[in-house]
Amino acid sequence: MALPLGHMSERLGNRFYLGLAVVLVLVAVYALVTGMNFGMKRQAYDLIIKNRFNTPAPDPEIVLIDIDEASLDAMAPQYGRWPWPRAVMAELTEALARARPRAIVFDITFSDADVYQAQADQYFREVVAATPNTYFPMIRLNPENDRLSELKLAKLAGVSRVERDAAADATVAMVVPYFYDVLDGQRLGTNNLYADIDGITRRYHVYREAHGYRIGSLPANVAVALGATLPERSDVLLNWRGPPLAYPTLSFHSVYASVTRPGSKTGEQFADKIVIIGSTAPSLFDIKPTPLAQLHPGVEILATALDNLRNGDYLTEVPAWIYLVVTVFGIALLAAAFVYNVDDRWVNLLFTLTQTGFLAVSYLFLNYSTLFVDLTAPFTAGLAYFTIARFYSLLITLRRNGHPLFSTALDTGRQCQVLYLSCRIVTTDKPTRGRVGRELLRRAGLTRYGVAAALIFKPAPLLYYAYRDTLLFYWLVAPDETCPALADLLHMLDTTLARLERRGEVPLRVGLHSVGFTVDDAGTWRTQARAALMEALALPEQAGGTLRATRAFAQTTATCPALAPSERLQRAGFQAQSSVG
Fold it and tell me: What percent of the chain has pLDDT over 70?
């Protein structure tokens, strides 16, 4: 398996980086168009929402009256466990209405009449009819059952016709309050929770359409009744106000006892408030998982949706094409860095900055704006590109070094040709020395066969400082690849000298050497390789000008009659008569 990878790296060279960029861009396009992001977008949203340092404050006008476990226990002796007689809700509604709240919103579906307490039901119906700022939920059922229903869409409050040819007798499968016929305007709205595929609630619907009608949600219809303008979208991504309980919450039994007491004025605290009556009691099962809590009360989710729609600060998602542009730009930068063999330190810095930038932008936008900028796609694409490209770069190096997993170059019986390029940087200026060294390493990375030798003396200070200004490169090839390897070497040297000449100085002494051997079990080839290595390292010290080539290198060059050294190399000293023995 490893050898084919080595052969592939030799055939493709740096073209692999361009191909990888194209493949990952196509994958990113497919993922963005189809929405197949393996849940990364949801996870990014959850992580940021849960860890924001700048969470928006809840609307101070929204107050919750909570049917909690304490209320169920306190009310049980007189009214029994849930459900309580409708007269309880009627009395509370009357008392709250006297305080003139902006709205009284029930997160309770009064779906069926109480056949055992018909008078209480009638009392509640009359109170609701006389209190125009009360709002109630209805539950949308499976649309497939619409044709079986007798409930007409046109008869429901909170429903509007959006198509001229919508049938007046169109029916809908819906659970509605038993007193729906006394409700008008926006006083009815759906209260379904549509969780994402992982079961987490992150959105709330603004409306749903059916048979040419638009059915508004409960928070959307309340927001409209209070003067808000709704977005032209069917769902909004919720801008949470924090973990539960984020809104001021009062226990039902204490509110009921205080506001229904004769002569009580405690209900005045609800003046100009939006009062939402619902339950956090686990036994009533109105609890859903959200990014902020596994047990998030439905009444809080309703309050959050109403808050978002009323104040217009629901989250807006960035169009997918922006993510595509960012992804292409990020991959293009990394691809250019690898194709042109930019210094590893700069590549690592570029990668770190882009990846950190993607995360920081996503996080900060959701802290300081209502934009949800999900950069998980460019982040993932960048991470995938960098990881694969780094592995491929290592693969190329191992292949050119003759590593047995990826190459057969040093197998017993193989004939090898090694071309050495030894470069000594002759300047005391540290920045210049670093710049010339980086240029040599970059150019070596752009060759087809060449590789830079490791800093074998680095652990030994004496030898390291003796050779720290000398860089050694070599081309390890089969004899039949000698001419392409020579052309590769000379091209690298020529382009490097051209670059240095444009900067105004060539602080280099260059040595060229060649050795051929056959890999044998006795280890003779190692002795030859070591001797050639030491001779190559010594060559720059012997060079009278810029370049010095051994007779062995000149003889190897002579076997490639089509090889024509450039004028620049000839000026530097690359001539047959200058060869040394």
Answer: 94
- Mean pLDDT (whole number) for 263-274: 82
Both tokens of 156, joined, read: 């429901």
Write the DSSP symbol of residue 282. Answer: G
Dihedral over Cα of 219, 220, 224, 227: its sign? positive
Count CA within 13 A, CB hemisphere, residue 364: 6
- What mean pLDDT is predicted for residues 244-250? 93
pLDDT band at 577 (very low <50, low <70, confident <90, very high): very low
Do 212 and 163 touch, CB atoms closer than 8 A? Answer: yes
pLDDT tens sequence across 470-501 = 888 888 988 989 999 899 899 988 888 888 88
Sign of the four-CA dihedral 52, 53, 59, 60? positive
- Name every residue whose Cβ is closer than 8 Å to that of residue 348 and which is 6 or more positions away in sequence: none
Give dist(CA 201, CA 41) in Å, integer: 14
Handedness of CA 353, 354, 355, 356 (dihedral sign): positive
d(CA 405, CA 395): 10
- In contact, 273 and 62? CB cutoff 8 Å: yes
Residue with tokens 């193989």: 414
The tokens for 424 are 């000594």
Nearest residue to 103 via CA among 221, 12, 20: 221
4 pLDDT exceeds 70? no
Q: Token pair for residue 460? A: 């030994």
User: In this structure, which amino acid lies at residue 84?
Assistant: W
Question: How many Cβ atoms are within 10 Å of 361's Cβ, its own excluded?
Answer: 15
Q: What is the pTM of this model?
A: 0.78
The 3-state secondary structure of 373-396 reads CCCHHHHHHHHHHHHHHHHHHHHH
Q: Which amino acid is it at 20?
A: L
